[in-house]
Design goal:
CATH class of the largest domain: Alpha Beta
Number of domains: 3
Order of helices and strands: HHHHHHEHEHEHEHEHHEHHEEHEEHEHEE
CATH architecture of the largest domain: 2-Layer Sandwich
Number of strands: 13
Strand content: 15-25%
Largest sheet: 8 strands, mixed
Structural class: alpha/beta
Number of helices: 17
CATH topology of the largest domain: Alpha-Beta Plaits
CATH superfamily of the largest domain: Nucleotide cyclase, GGDEF domain
């Protein structure tokens, strides 16, 4: 290993003090944290020993403050000098106070009886005493098995719908403390001693909240936080940082990386409860908002589908953009009418339910045909189906070809339909005026001479034929096969020659 690597691997005295202070504060936090949980139980039970326990808990908090203050005043000229001063301070100040506190808690144990929380507090005192006795040895490993917090919380197991919380901390006693507290809130808790294992768990089972320690080996809390906030699957999970670190820049970086809040160790139970509940409530609100937005999007799409069934796309776009649709002249439009022959007689001789069913079936096929060929259905009037092509600005020939294809397919569809009905189809091209009709129940309609002529031509045609005007027939020219039906009287239009279109040529 090079000298530069050795130098980079050796922390500065200031960093060494910060790390040691964090580790010692973590040991204190377990002691004080279990004390907070027990104090809540004593207060709820209105125990006569509450004041006595409060005094012991206050002594523990004061001892933490005095110890941290002592550490902050130790020399930083060298790591060796710092270690010497800390050992002396712990032996003179902290260890005697811990022994006194241990005596008080032991006396309370005799008064309160065997309680898991008393055992947890005494175990935390033992570990803290060992740490202060040998402050710079390797971390002290837990020798005894920790009890399951769900079995010691004094409440029922969380239900299947309980919010799920992941707690990540490399110190098992910290995990036991926080789990004990969270289970008491009715939460389902899963603990991990490494961020790597927590990430593996999230791959298969998401959670509602993550409580995260910062100082961990292999993957520290900030690295874990950045990973999940960069992953679309996990980025919405709120992360609450619970740490003994007092580095303001480090905590600020966590907030910038996406943590919702931070809570210092040792925590007060009221603060932890408030921040956990706030984070879960925010998560619930986000889930509701996401569900609402999904439903809103679904309903919006449904409305657009309904609108598209009765209005041309251009009209919908104009309505969405301006909130209104002004009447507009459309040139190069071809109008199509398709009418059932002798429909009134069929209604008189057949059951009306059957008639409606067959009409619905046939017109559904017509709608599909119109959509297939780019023809816009306008409306149905009894047994008459009206549609147009060319509203989107196509040229006249293209509009006419679209209507011819649709008209011929409609004739074929009626021939194969079980109703046995025959139809007449008429088309005519020219200019129309279109706009919305109605104030509550919108209907897009077109009107003008082109519409009237198309309707008259359809009425003058023969069953199972496609009929058109001379201008439309001439425009289609070489694209079609057809013939003249001669001149006929069209109501309001006088004598005009009309034509049938038998088929389309392959041009």
């Amino acid at each position: 290993m090079s000298s530069n690597e050795n130098k980079s691997a050796t922390p500065s005295p200031d960093k060494f003090r910060s790390t040691f202070r964090h580790d010692l504060r973590s040991n204190f936090s377990v002691l004080i944290g279990f004390g907070e949980v027990l104090r809540e139980d004593l207060a709820n039970a209105k125990s006569p020993h509450l004041d006595e326990f409060d005094a012991a808990l206050s002594q523990g908090r004061m001892l933490l403050d005095d110890t941290i203050q002592m550490i902050n005043h130790c020399t930083l000229s060298s790591i060796a000098g710092f270690q010497t001063e800390v050992r002396n301070g712990l032996r003179k100040q902290t260890l005697p106070a811990l022994r006194t506190l241990n005596e008080k808690i032991t006396q309370l144990k005799e008064t309160l009886g065997e309680q898991e929380l008393i055992k947890d507090i005494l175990e935390a005192l033992r570990r803290l005493t060992l740490r202060c006795h040998s402050p710079f040895d390797n971390r002290i490993e837990l020798n005894a098995n920790l009890p399951n917090p769900q079995l010691t919380a004094g409440k029922d197991h969380p239900g299947p719908d309980a919010p799920r919380v992941l707690v990540i901390d490399d110190e098992t006693h910290n995990l036991h403390l926080i789990s004990t507290f969270l289970v008491r809130l009715g939460l389902s808790v899963t603990t991990f001693t490494s961020g790597v294992n927590a990430l593996r768990s999230l791959e298969t089972d998401l959670c509602d909240l993550i409580l995260l320690d910062l100082h961990m080996p292999a993957m520290n809390g900030l690295e874990f936080l950045k990973i999940i906030k960069s992953d679309e699957r996990f980025k919405e999970i709120p992360v609450l940082v619970v740490t003994a670190s007092d580095d303001a820049d480090e905590l600020a970086e966590c907030i910038e990386a996406g943590a919702v809040d931070s809570l210092p160790k040792p925590f007060q139970s009221a603060f932890l409860k408030a921040r956990v509940q706030m984070s879960l409530e925010l998560q619930t609100i986000k889930k509701r908002e996401k569900t609402f937005l999904h439903e809103l999007s679904f309903q919006k799409n449904r409305v657009e589908e309904l609108l598209s069934a009765i209005l041309p796309k251009e009209i919908i776009d104009e309505l969405n953009t301006t909130g209104e649709v002004l009447p507009k002249r459309y040139n190069n439009v071809c109008v199509l009418f398709c009418d059932i022959v002798n429909f009134t007689q069929s209604c008189e001789s057949q059951d009306h339910v059957l008639i409606l069913s067959q009409l619905q079936s046939l017109f559904s096929e017509f709608e599909a045909i119109a959509d297939l060929h780019g023809v816009q259905k306008i409306k149905t009037i009894g047994d008459s189906f009206m549609a147009v092509a060319g509203l989107r600005g196509s040229n006249t020939l293209q509009s006419e070809l679209q209507c011819v294809r649709a008209g011929l397919d409609m004739i074929s569809a009626s021939a194969a339909h079980p109703s046995g009905w025959k139809v007449r189809v008429g088309i005519h091209s020219g200019s129309v005026v279109g706009g919305l009709v109605g104030s509550r129940q919108f209907l897009f309609d077109v009107w003008g001479d082109t519409v009237n002529v198309a309707a008259r031509i359809e009425g003058a045609g023969q069953p199972q034929t496609l009929t058109c005007s001379k201008t439309t027939f001439d425009s289609l020219g070489r694209h079609i096969q057809g013939r003249s039906l001669g001149s006929t009287e069209l109501k309001g239009k006088g004598i005009q020659e009309i034509f049938t279109i038998d088929s389309l040529n392959k041009v």
